[in-house]
User: What shape does this take?
Amino acid sequence: MDLPKFSLDAEILSQEQMAENVYRMTVHCPQIAGVAQPGTFVQMRLLGGDVLLRRPLGIAEAEREKGTLSFLYRVLGKGTAAFSRLRPGAQVNLLGPLGHGFCMDLHRPLLVGGGMGLSPLLFYARCMEKRADVLMGGRHAGEMFWTELFKPYVSKSYLATDDGSLGSKGFAVSLLPKLLEKGEYDAVIACGPEIMMERAAEMAKAAGIPCQVSLEKRMACGLGACLSCSVDASDGTRKKVCKDGPVFWAEEVFP
Amino acid sequence: MNGGLLKTELAGISMNTPVLTASGTFGFGEEFAEFVDLSLLGGVMVKGTTRKPRRGNAGVRIAETPSGMLNCIGLENPGVDVFLQETLPRLMPYHMNVIVNISGTTVEEYGVLAEMLDVPGVAAIELNVSCPNVKDGGIVFGTDPKAAASVVKAAKKWTKKPVILKLSPNVTDIVLMAKAVEAAGADAISLINTLLGMEIDIHTWRPTLGNITGGLSGPCVKPVALRMVWQVAQNVKVPVIGMGGIASWQDAVEFFLAGASAVAVGTANFVNPHAAMDIIRGLEAYLQEKKLGSIRELVGKMDCG
Assistant: This one.
């Protein structure tokens, strides 16, 4: 089912730097916070300034009582750099919530996230109230602020870094077969680099459990109109990441 | 909305307002139904439709530029059969003017598409002879006056619907193109389509876009579009639908003054999903403030002294 969508100005309540080039922005937007589901996203627009198009940002936290939304994002280009310079009190415009989120009808999911892909999984973990475990991957210890963020909401955490400065050395997904061995989980929920999600999907399949993945593409409208974000689906049709996704069952989009 | 200040008629199409949405920027209209009263629009120029489904271009399809964007979608669409069987019936409840933008690979194919779309529920046909993003579709027809004229004749022969031709700005003499398609029987002219452009990633030395080049749109093209609308409008008798970088009612007023009988909103829909509604409200207030009885009193009224 499609969620109601809003296009609203929202005040920035806080903006903190989490790691080099990584920020957490919290905004007041009760309408979107009230209906957002884990895995959905917003299209954020800079008001004034020289950035034209909106930028898609996954929702990392939504607090219905306070009416707030948080976004954890990495500065990658002109748009995100401009976002990172905004201070509390400034306004942004949000279009959302957009897309379809993760399956909530699970008892014991294993979350697999790489880098900024952990952002929408945080919202999901929180809604699962300790029923989920998380397997986290990152570049180095300096970027693993995630462990503290996830701690209150998950049962167990596992982690790997590219340089071995925290947790296991190497790709997080390499730890997956062992974690799935015991048959404890009823699904894998993955978000991160596409190659990571493909491997997670293969391993989930081998373990006989379903897997959802969240795709990321450049997009302009976020409403399914511009077709910037179309991808080939396994059944030969085309899917719009913004509207049909960003969350898909792995077999819908991976061969 | 009061008094119908914005009501107009163009090429036999009755419009509640002279504000349309440009093809490729508004899907089939339904995607924006939560933000725009579609029946208030002069029309929705729906996503470019072809004889067969097209998957569009591979790789990166959009890039932001200073005050604009490049796109190389490549006419991804489900094809005319799906449009007629599935999309068009779904659009009926919105009571909007559905203007179907079509692209053919041959002159004959424009005729075939025009005939297939000569059905109830379609208000007009817009001929896309200027998509810069497909090798086999259009660009030849959009830059050669004789070829553009032959496309208009083919479409006119097979449909009773009004036929609008959308001109490419990527030509030396836009007036020559406009006169050729008017002589061939076009009922109206849309301009402009996107300007051909590109971007290179200086770290990888590779083109940003999957198709290397793409179409430039957004506020940065507005002065070019306005100039071309002005040049064309004073040289043809058929109405001109002005488009290119219109993001505000003030932009729209400039296009009417330059000679456009209607305007279309494009890239601005991506930035602000209710841009077209804001423009309609702004235009109405402007007409009231200027004590004008109709939008038609604004058309072509630029005063060069």
User: Anything to note?
Assistant: The longest strand of chain B covers residues 43-49.
